[in-house]
Amino acid sequence: MASNVNPTVRRRRLGQELRRLREAKGMTAEEVADRLLVSQSKISRLENGRRSISQRDVRDLCGVYEVEDHRIVDSLMQMAKDSRQQGWWHAFGDIPYSVYIGLETEAASLRVYESLLVPGLLQTPGYAEAVIPGTVPELAPDHLEKRIQVRMRRQERISDTEHPLRLWAVLDESALRRVVGSHLIMREQLDHLVEMSQLPQVTVQILPYDTGAHAGMSGTFSILEFDDAADSSVVYIEGVTSDLYLEKTNDVHKYTIMYEHLRAQALSAEQSREFIASAAKSHADAAG
């Protein structure tokens, strides 16, 4: 989806512009909230792009910031209008990680570290059908089907001929050994992982058990990067009840350094393919 209609990215860019205007005016979020008789948390949510922004919000904020250039106001108002459009994922109903999907849809590259499972963009339907209810207990059958459909739809970014996603995944050996669903499902999943790793835009590396302690032991994370200079990189950390999005330069830098250490410690891409193929054979032998 192009950036000019991606609602998530539009909200994020608009929030950044509103924050810039506030800071240029020398005002705190609390001062702005007092002027508009709203909560400080609302101003913060508008600026971080996690909340839908109405044209009225933009008009009121531009008034507080004394923006006199009508072209700037009109541009921000149009961004607010665009940000209220719905992305393709909204057709599937309430998806808890819809903000992430919006960012992933626009990202130019994605670096993922996973310690326990195969990343969603590389999952087979069979693996997804087994892993989703395992990680989300008591999920209704219709919600399970929607999540599988969304996961398969997200994978289209990898093969998009106009705007392919550059995916780099570092996986702990546990993701290959844990039997999700059955040994047969795992064999099919790992065969698929080998196949996907041969695409020029996909790199998969494995951290074997004998690597020992490594930078990823504190938890899984993803780093999203964008073509447009106006969009800063984002570190995404998935949570049970809420997700964390880190955008400060220092935070992104720390996770980038962690990822570089993970890539350096992991097997090479070719060694990883051989390792995955061997693990797939083990599952095949176990399946009989």
UniProtKB/TrEMBL annotation:
Coiled coil: none
UniProt xrefs under Pfam families: DUF5753, HTH_31
Gene3D superfamilies: lambda repressor-like DNA-binding domains (1.10.260.40)
UniProt cross-references to InterPro entries, sorted A to Z: Cro/C1-type_HTH (IPR001387), DUF5753 (IPR043917), Lambda_DNA-bd_dom_sf (IPR010982)
The organism's place on the tree of life at top rank: Bacteria
Sequence ranges assigned to domain HTH cro/C1-type in this UniProt record: 18-73
SUPFAM superfamilies per the UniProt record, alphabetical: lambda repressor-like DNA-binding domains
Name by which UniProt lists this protein: Helix-turn-helix domain-containing protein
Organism expressing this protein natively: Streptomyces caniferus
